[in-house]
Design brief:
The complex is a heterodimer of chains A (about 290) and B (about 475). Chain A has about 290 residues and is an alpha/beta fold. Chain A is about 40% helix and about 20% strand. In chain A, a hairpin with a 6-residue loop joins strand 3 (about 130) and strand 4 (about 140-145). The longest helix of chain A is centred in the middle third of the chain and has 21 residues, at about 100-120.
């Protein structure tokens, strides 16, 4: 062992492809499961959330307009880079979640594989969810799934990496952009993941990550008029009804959370992909 | 303008009865609510007295639906459910003329629309969904998707029978039971549908129909025994419902308002476009959530198009809904007429140029002459708010990008129209428009196989097609 002092990382927010500190200048202490100091994380504010929504909206046109093949490649690239930093994520997840290295390994592996799974979905969703509509008349009619828009994601509180990936990947796979509020007490893997996103061809603004107090930030996200949908995965149980109510002001689509945090190691189905798409039906007359 | 001899449909065909009762647990029974009088909006005469539900009736209906779900409908093989639903489809077709006349009497819509659109599409909706009942495992939602339970459904007055069909058919096909509240001003055809459901021998409680006003709807959607809420109506009420159900765990679908852009490019076939524009905004007196109420015309053809439009709209015949020659019928209620009048006044006071069809109007009843505003800017209320009447706002644009930006500049997103001869432009615009239904070189087409529903504040969930089944399954 050398006596060298390691260089500690400053954990910041990830908004519009950049890594700003919270505009509020606040930070909070992140501890491991035994109460030891891990780092100071930025304590995001209402204004940070709003900046993140602006960035997500700005990125929406380009990302939703990208070809599905391109989005698939970008998501796959995330898996590639995550694989390359596997050891770092294992250490960070183990520290964050207080789990043994072996469990952290399987968790990180599952997170990498989840990116691959969703990468493969990008150019199949329209085939599976779309339709040619055999209408009773001389019209050609088809329906295609399109992204809902800007999705506010409250990331799972316990599963800091696999849970996070499991909710963010399906949102962006279909062409949405995301504003993510991380696990409050376990935010570090999310910020490290944002470093992966920043270097893996995911355009800036497609995923925006805000750390801080969930109870403080979530209502701003839920009531923001330029957010189209809300994933309540990591919403505190006591706040879920309030957040769902706030979402009604602009008729947001709300994906509710189960009573207890699900087992994120289970193989997902299409439900998270279906949650944040809109079906568009197009008609045109047929004739000579 | 050509003269037409009157060609009235015979109102006796409606089999109008002096009173109608609600349908609960397989029986027609008196409700404990204050009875309502439903009015013919074309004459302001009372058509019939209709019993309404009170809180206790809603509770009884939900419990009846629950019993029917637990004991019969929820566990019935899909193939058997299908046959009941097919029966309903057939019986609607058998009584099509009666239903069409009754619909035009109660709603005020022209008989040619109730006859050619509302009633046949309602029958088609049951026929289409009947076939799904034993094929749900093929819908891509898992091998054996399960129903939700009791569906509480609230529908509007603009397509009374058709909206009942859109709601009831998929619910039943997926194995749910139903408590449906028709609109206060148009309860009659839903209660004839109840007769059909009784004659089709559906088990008691599978479908319950409770007339009443908004308070009955609020009672229904908030009832703890309701697992699924489906609402079609205004965005304001939709938001109230979504908010009131927050944290309750019920599955909700909302089909709300719209302010559709109908975009005419300079290469559009203008005569054909004029027909589509007229259909888009004057169909059903403009009482259509997906009405093409904002016309966006490319500047270079705007004058020519508006002139053609005025000429065409001048030929529309407004009057007796039962006359087979009538193009535009009666506004559904005095309340709606007041709302339309108020918004039209705002258009004038905000500086838009108003043109009104010179057609004569009947001297009684609720009628509003087709109105076209030009010189409309995006900030005006008539460009932003849903008027739900025969009022068109015309805006112009110069470039395709500007057209899309203006079209999408709305919190709604239910429908949109595109008029151009250029195929690549159609597909480009269809892709860019943020709306659930896009009609290109046509407008206001509906089919049970084609999903319908909105983006943004026009609601969520779809009706029709494979996608529509999701709303009634536990997936």
């Amino acid at each position: 062992m050398s006596d060298r002092l390691s260089v500690a990382k400053t954990y910041k927010l990830y908004i519009g492809g950049a890594f700003p500190r919270s505009e509020s200048g606040r930070s909070y202490v992140v501890r491991d499961s035994k109460g030891g100091f891990l780092a100071n994380a930025a304590q995001g504010s209402r204004k940070d959330v709003r900046e993140a929504v602006v960035a997500a909206r700005k990125a929406f046109g380009g990302w939703s307009g990208a070809t599905a093949y391109n989005r698939g490649q970008v998501l796959y690239r995330v898996a590639e880079l995550l694989e390359g930093r596997r050891e770092q994520f294992i250490a960070e997840t183990a520290a964050s979640e207080g789990i043994a290295t072996k469990k952290a390994q399987s968790t990180v592996d599952a997170a990498i594989d989840r990116w691959v799974w969703y990468a493969g979905w990008t150019d199949k969703i329209a085939t599976v969810l779309g339709a040619s509509n055999p209408v009773a008349g001389p019209y050609f009619s088809f329906s295609v799934p399109e992204p809902t828009g800007v999705v506010g994601v409250l990331a799972p509180q316990a599963s800091s990496l696999l849970g996070l990936v499991s909710v963010v990947a399906p949102v962006i796979a279909t062409g949405n952009t995301a504003v993510v509020i991380t696990s409050q007490d376990r935010p570090l893997p999310a910020i490290t993941l944002s470093e992966v996103l920043a270097t893996s061809d995911v355009p800036g603004g497609v995923v925006n990550i805000v750390t801080g107090r969930t109870a403080e930030l979530a209502p701003w996200l839920a009531s923001h008029a330029d957010v189209n949908a809300l994933d309540l995965a990591g919403a505190p149980e006591s706040m879920r009804a309030e957040l769902e109510g706030a979402a009604a002001d602009t008729v947001k689509r709300v994906l509710r959370a189960r009573a207890t945090e699900p087992d994120w190691t289970a193989q997902p189905d299409m439900s998270r992909l279906r949650a944040f798409v809109e079906s568009k039906t197009v008609w045109h007359p047929m004739g000579v | 303008m050509w003269e037409y001899a009157p060609a009235p449909e015979n109102r006796d065909i409606a089999n109008l009865k002096p009173s109608y009762r609600m349908f609960l647990d397989g029986e027609f029974v008196e409700g404990a609510g204050e009875p309502l009088k439903t009015v013919n909006p074309a004459t302001e005469e009372v058509l019939a007295e209709v019993s309404t539900a009170d809180k206790n009736d809603v509770d009884r209906a939900v419990k009846a639906a629950r019993r029917a779900y637990d004991r019969v409908w929820g566990k019935m093989p899909g193939a058997e459910r299908a046959k009941y639903i097919y029966r309903i489809a057939r019986m609607i077709a058998e009584r099509a003329r009666e239903l069409a006349v009754l619909e035009s009497l109660d709603n005020g819509k022209p008989i040619k629309e109730s006859r050619d659109v509302d009633v046949p599409t309602a029958s088609a909706h049951f026929f289409y969904h009947a076939g799904w009942a034993d094929k749900l495992g093929y819908a891509g939602l898992g091998p054996d998707p399960r129903p939700l339970g009791v569906a509480g459904q609230v529908i509007p007055w603009n397509f009374p029978l058709l909206m009942a069909a859109w709601k009831i058919a998929p619910a039943l096909a997926c194995g749910n039971t139903v408590v449906l509240k028709p609109a206060e001003t148009t309860p009659l055809t839903a209660l004839v549908l109840a007769e059909i459901i009784q004659q089709a021998e559906l088990p008691p409680g599978v479908v319950n129909i409770l007339p009443g006003a908004g308070d009955v709807g609020a009672e229904l959607v908030s009832h703890a025994g309701v697992d699924k809420v489906a609402f079609t109506g205004s965005t304001d009420v939709g938001k109230l419902i979504q908010r009131s159900l927050a944290g309750k765990g019920k599955k909700v679908t909302l089909e709300l308002g719209g302010k559709a852009a109908n975009v005419v490019f300079d290469d559009a076939p203008l005569d054909q476009a004029v027909e589509g524009i007229v259909n888009g905004i004057f169909f059903n007196q403009g009482h259509v959530c997906c009405a093409g109420s904002r016309l966006l015309v490319q500047e270079s053809v705007a004058d020519e198009l508006i002139e053609k439009l005025h000429a065409r709209v001048s030929t529309l015949r407004i009057g007796d809904p039962l006359d087979k020659n009538t193009d535009v019928g009666a506004i559904n209620s005095r309340e709606q007429l007041t709302k339309i009048t108020e918004l039209v006044e705002s258009g004038e006071s905000e500086g838009a140029e108003k043109w009104v069809s010179p057609c004569p109007l009947p001297d009684k009843g609720f009628f509003f002459a087709p109105t076209v505003f030009s010189g409309v800017s995006q900030a005006m209320r008539i460009a932003r708010e849903e008027i739900f009447g025969p009022v068109l706002s015309v805006l112009t644009f110069r470039t395709p990008d500007e057209a899309i930006a203006k079209a999408n500049n709305t919190p709604y997103g239910l429908s949109a129209g595109i008029w151009t001869e250029k195929g690549s432009r159609i597909l480009w615009a269809a892709n860019k428009l943020r709306a659930g239904v896009v009609w290109a070189n046509t407008f206001n087409r509906f089919d049970p196989t084609a999903p319908f529903g909105g983006y943004q504040e026009s609601g969520f969930g779809r009706e029709g097609g494979r996608t529509g089944l999701e709303a009634y399954l536990d997936v």
